[in-house]
Write a structure and sequence with these properties.
By secondary structure, this protein is of the alpha/beta class. The chain contains 11 helices and 14 strands. It has an 8-stranded mixed β-sheet with strand order 4-1-9-10-11-12-13-14, with helices on both faces. Strands 3-2-7-8 form a 4-stranded mixed β-sheet. Strands 5-6 form a two-stranded parallel sheet.
Amino acid sequence: MPKILVIGSSNTDMVVRADRLPRPGETVLGGTFFMNPGGKGANQAVAAARLGGQVAFVCKTGDDLFGSEARRLFREEGIDTSHLLTDPSAPSGVALITVDRQAENCIVVAPGANANLTPDDLRRAASAFEQADIVLLQLEIPMETVEQAALTACATGKRVVLNPAPATAIPARLLAALDLITPNETEAEAITGIRIADRRTADEAARRLAATGAKQVVITLGAQGALVYEAGQSRIVEGYPVRAVDTTAAGDVFNGALVVALAEGKPLEEAARFACKAAAISVTHPGAQGSIPTRAEVEAFDR
């Protein structure tokens, strides 16, 4: 099994369904409420584990019910939890999510203990870096911690993948340490300043990202699939048409699936196709981790 190290956030998602998303200052009467385990790091770790990876996860939770429940669920998924940390001074992270009838969502995250995951914490997880084949990062933990993780992985010869979400500017030193960066359209614009409206602008954004140091680029395009860029060439990997119910964790499922396929030795384009299938299946189910498919489901998927 490919050995994957995920470093990132763990949240509890509190979700309300509504006919539409509220405008600023507006109250919208919603429908169903439910809670799900979430957080970009946790979602991607669970996705990688369900899809065939041997996963170790580094995160920090509060000393509370949400943190205890997260740990229990990670163990049930077969994830190595020996590097999970507890912060007695901060609550576990939570995310407030509204999902409309078109399956679009808006999300506000209170990071809690996630914001206290430090570079020093990573030094205590040195063995996890040594054992990994590939390291997957996101941006719901402090930027200095993400940067330290990337530099440590790079120095030990590990493949480094950054999903730059939520959207923000990225330090040049971090970009230069990456083997692969996987933004969506909004995140690519935040980094490059290029608004993606079509294949040409997506290609332009990918080239600019590659010029910063990342050896490969995958820009996810929602239902349209993904643009894959490597060795000066770009290709579109088409998406899979499905009836979407909830898109909340689709990007996280894509990234978890992508690193599993890459760690298994698949070429980038083939890995992106596998990831598109996994993400397509995920949006047909509600919730974050509850929507993540198994390897068998992805392999049986027929467009």
